[in-house]
Amino acid sequence: METPEIVLDADQRQAAERLDAIAARVGKRWRFHVGQHGSRGLYLYGGPGRGKTMLMNRFFESVRTTRKRRYHFHAFFARLNAGIHEYGSIDASAAALLGDAELICFDEFHVHDSGDARLVARLLDTLFARHITLVVTSNYPPHDLLPNPYMHPLFVPTIDRILEHLDVVSVNGPTDYRTLGGRHTGFAAGHYVVGACPATGAVDLPVAHRRLRARSIENGVITVDFAELCGIPVSAADFLELTAELHTWVVCDVPPLGTVPPDWVMRFVNLVDVLYDADFELSVFAEVPLAELGGEVRRVPDLYRTLSRLGELREPANLEAR
User: Fold this and answer.
1) Which residue of 13, 52, 190, 194 sits 20 to 30 Å from the alpha carbon of 218, by its own alpha carbon?
2) 295-301: Cβ within 8 A, 24+ apart
3) Where are the extended beta strands (E) located within 132-270?
4) Rounded to whole angstroms, what are the CA distances from 112 to 120, 138, 216, 266, 275?
5) Of 254 and 173, which is predicted with more confidence?
6) What is the bridge-based pairing of β-strands 192-194 and 281-286?
């Protein structure tokens, strides 16, 4: 049976046309001399659920070269930092990750932290110096990266470099496609339940030189309380490490996020990002409906993306709080 044609909105069509042009060029660059703009890439930005990742995945699959790499930004930074310890420098770590790539795709490109900003600046300098074509998706236009008013001026030269090497296209149509439902596999196979988790026992799991107490771990399925998981200093890289063995996640007792510290919320954001990119099933047992979960969204960067993603989970009427 033929795959049904995807109907794109106006923003998506414009982005798809730009991506098709890049796909036609990448892999053929060896045939002619390339100047500085020969590797010009694309920066797609817009709200969650607007089809940016879909467009980038479609593009990536269409590029006829083996010299291409696609990374979720969390995963890339985790590997970059691990490589810095292994190889002794960011340049050596980046070189190992990039290999002979002529195309790099980053999903969910963002910069919120000044330490990350320095790494991003060095990484982009390496990419542009090697004339690697770069395609990124982001929830933020370039000028909104590193929004801290005290730190932002230091990142402006890097933003200028991005604008010099990448065309910027908004993909911000009126529809959040995640809210339309229809997908019930992978991440979206999970549920969002207002109520309590079934009672289970307790098991300790080592993570980030600490002990995480889960309700249960069995056959790749972990059931864990929100406070246990997000109340300890763990990073996106730690969650990535856990997903090597754990493919199904059940998070219990999730409170209204406006009632807990911002760093707890940021860890929840990171967890959902990691599971969504891996397309691993997530179920959430919360104290309030999803519409009430976010609270003060502006307290934590990217929380609105998390809420959009949780909107893909089913809310079964027959699993009410007991």
Assistant:
1) 194
2) 295/256, 295/257, 295/258, 295/259, 296/258, 299/258, 299/262, 299/265, 300/257, 300/262, 300/265, 300/266, 300/269, 301/110, 301/112, 301/147, 301/266, 301/269
3) 133-138, 166-170, 192-194, 203-207, 210-214, 216-218, 221-225, 248-254
4) 11, 12, 34, 11, 20
5) 254
6) parallel
- At residue 128, what is the residue type? F
Q: Which residues of 156-194 are buried (b: 16+ CB within 10 A; e: fewer)?
A: eebbebbeebbeebebbbeeebbeeeeeeebbbbbbbbb
- CA-CA distance, 184 to 147, in Å (whole number)? 36
Phi first, then psi, for residue 268 (nearest 5°) are -65, -40
Other CB atoms closer than 10 Å to residue 221's CB: what's the count? 14
Instruction: Give the number of residues written for the chain.
Output: 322
Please write the tens of the pLDDT for every residue from 238-288. Answer: 999 999 999 999 999 999 999 999 999 999 999 999 999 889 999 999 999
8 Å CB contact between 119 and 80: yes
- Tokens, residue 140: 């933020």
Token pair belonging to 118:
């320095």
